[in-house]
Amino acid sequence: MTRDQLTELWQKRMNDFEKSGLTGLQWCGAHNIKISQFRYWRRKLHLTHPIQSSGRWTSLLIEDERKDGPLLIHFGQARIEVHSGFNPDLLADVVRVLCSL
């Protein structure tokens, strides 16, 4: 399988996942796919194919003052604390919802 074919396959898988309403872990279990592969391709495809936006500008403030503390993200009125060991699928879902508002 060529790299382009593999990329196309994973793009279809990501589209299927996003329509499924499942978490990444649930979707991978249902499709017998390793979560590490899923996360790799999700990051890779989101870097090369950014999520379509409404074209609205918004402000985003990220505070990273303490190297051993949580990452604080301010998005409009929302405040998100990201601690080490966080669930990246959950954070992606939260960001997707905030972007749709």
Characteristic key phrases:
101 residues; alpha+beta; 2 domains; 3-stranded antiparallel sheet; 4 helices; 52% helix
Q: Any idea what the radius of gyration is?
A: 16 Å
Pairing-aware structural class of the strands and helices? alpha+beta
The quaternary structure here is: single chain
Unreliably modeled segments: none
Instruction: Provide the succession of SSEs.
Output: HHHEEEH
Number of domain units: 2
Overall 3D shape: globular
End-to-end separation: 39 Å
Distinct helical segment count: 4
Helical proportion, percent range: 40-55%
Major β-sheet strand ordering: 1-2-3
- Average pLDDT taken over every residue: 77
Record field, number of beta strands: 3
Sheet-strand content, in percent, reads 5-15%
Largest sheet: 3 strands, antiparallel
Description:
It is built from four helices and three strands; from the N terminus they run αααβββα. It has 101 residues and is α+β, with helices and mostly antiparallel strands. It has two domains: 1-50; 55-101, no CATH class. The protein has a three-stranded antiparallel beta sheet, with no helix packed on it. The chain is globular and about 45 Å long.
